[in-house]
Design brief:
The chain is mainly α and 218 residues long. It has eleven helices and no strands. Among the domains are: 63 residues, no CATH class; 85 residues, Serine Threonine Protein Phosphatase 5, Tetratricopeptide repeat (Alpha Horseshoe). The protein is elongated and about 50 Å long.
């Protein structure tokens, strides 16, 4: 068999294989989506486990447990709100209560209260709690239409490259800030980078979907 014929045969086989793979991927799209959701749940669990591990050998373990219990029972026990507010004023451990309380106010759409709580603690520490606080604070800025402030916050975290907080989460929220601001090209570039560099993560998968949506709407 001539070299050109062998080359053409290999190309045909490659094209056929790629076509079959794309057809298979389309047929199993729902399974891929379920897997992505499962990965997101795993991410939440991992973050929670890391949080507990970081604090389990100190007084913060019992403090964290108390805060989470107060928040879980808040709807049935409104008096817990005052207790949580008092706990935010504790010098050493107040950031945890501040994060939980701000999340509660944000769920109730009391954005200003949530922002004020986080503003008081967002510059303290450089651990997991700190980056969770800054992330939530930046999301509040996006909700208020203050996109440049949110972008600056996310860019700063990106520059710091924290080991205690998943960078793909930050980059995805950064892309969302650009998208909502109307800077579609910047958003699209970040989504593409996420798709390429975080292929096996939930936010890498979501970024791929976002990129396809933005590209199809242009």
């Amino acid at each position: 068999m001539k070299r050109t014929e062998r080359k053409q045969l290999k190309e045909d086989e490659l094209a056929t294989g790629l076509s079959r793979f794309l057809k298979w991927a389309k047929q199993h799209e729902k399974e891929f989506m379920a897997l992505a959701i499962g990965l997101a749940v795993i991410l939440v669990v991992v973050v929670a486990v890391n949080l507990v591990i970081n604090y389990q050998r100190s007084r913060e373990a019992s403090y964290l447990s108390e805060v989470l219990t107060l928040r879980a029972e808040l709807d049935k026990k409104p008096e817990n709100l005052e207790k949580l507010q008092q706990m935010t004023r504790k010098t050493r451990y107040g950031r945890i209560a501040s994060l939980i309380l701000a999340s509660y106010y944000l769920e109730k759409n009391e954005v200003q209260k949530a922002e004020e709580i986080l503003a008081a603690v967002k510059d303290k520490g450089r651990d997991l709690i700190h980056y969770q606080i800054v992330d939530l604070y930046a999301q509040i800025k996006i909700k208020k239409g203050q996109y440049d402030e949110a972008i600056n916050l996310y860019r700063q975290i990106e520059k710091e490259k924290p080991k205690s907080y998943p960078l793909d989460v930050i980059l995805f929220h950064l892309a969302e800030a650009y998208e909502k601001k109307g800077e579609i090209q910047n958003a699209l570039q970040i989504y593409r980078d996420l798709q390429a560099n975080y292929q096996n993560t939930y936010f890498g998968y979501q970024a791929a979907l976002k990129a396809m949506q933005l590209e199809s709407s242009r």
